[in-house]
Amino acid sequence: MRIFRRKRNSGEHRYYLLPGMGRSNRRFRKKTHIAAVIVGILASLLFGTAIYLIQRP
Question: Would residue 2 count as lying in a domain?
Answer without folding.
Answer: no
